[in-house]
Amino acid sequence: MVAVYRAPMRSRDDGIDVAKTVERARRVGVCGFGERGVDEDRLARRISRFADAPDGALVWTRDPDGLFWLGRIDGPYRPDTTAAATAVDLVHIRPCRWLPEPFLEPEVPAVVLATYRRGGRNFQQTHDSAVGPESARLWEAHTNAG
Q1: What superkingdom does the record give (predicted)?
Q2: CA–CA dist 78, 56 (Å, integer)
Q3: Domain containing residue 58: CATH number
Q4: Which is nearest to 78 in space by CA: 5, 6, 28?
Q5: Does the residue 146 lie in any domain?
Q6: Which range marks the domain in which residue 25 is found?
Q7: Predicted confidence (pLDDT) per residue in 40-72, tens digit
Q8: Which among 16, 13, 10 is positioned nearest to 33, based on CA atoms?
């Protein structure tokens, strides 16, 4: 079964424009999170959980327009200390292949919607028996289309 994660890609610094963070992640092919506003112990644990997510895991993120994007983790963790990454606080990253088109809310698995309704800014695994197969079907349908 494929693992599925919620990757909000929102900085804890409210001065960071989440639209720019999500756009950069999709454009350069990564998923991840920042480090502003997080104490070192918590940050180390977050990095460890993120680095331990399996290659091939699916990730969902939502942009400020309410559109949902589905990606697939495709490589190991690495820090990104470039000025562009620091500017959008997306400095803890993994390679990620994003589908080129977003999903509207009615197309997204219900449990994914529920995790976003609860809020939060953490990268976290979505534990539900249906979310893996549902997300994998969407991935396959959209990567094999055309």
Answers
A1: Bacteria
A2: 16
A3: 3.10.590
A4: 28
A5: no
A6: 4-141
A7: 888 999 999 999 999 999 999 999 999 999 999
A8: 10
pTM beyond 0.90, yes or no: yes
Give how many domains the chain has, as a whole number: 1
Residue 121 forms part of a structural domain: yes
Distance, CA of 16 to CA of 38 (rounded, Å): 14
Torsion angle, alpha carbons of 124, 129, 135, 136, to 10: 120
* SS3 sequence of the chain: CCCEEECCCCCCCCCCCHHHHHHHHHHHCEEEECCCCCCHHHHHHHHHHHHHCCCCCEEEEECCCCCEEEEEECCCCEECCCHHHHHCCCCEEEEEEECCCCECHHHCCHHHHHHHHCCCCCCEECCCCCHHHHHHHHHHHHHCCC
The Cα 101–Cα 130 span in angstroms is 22
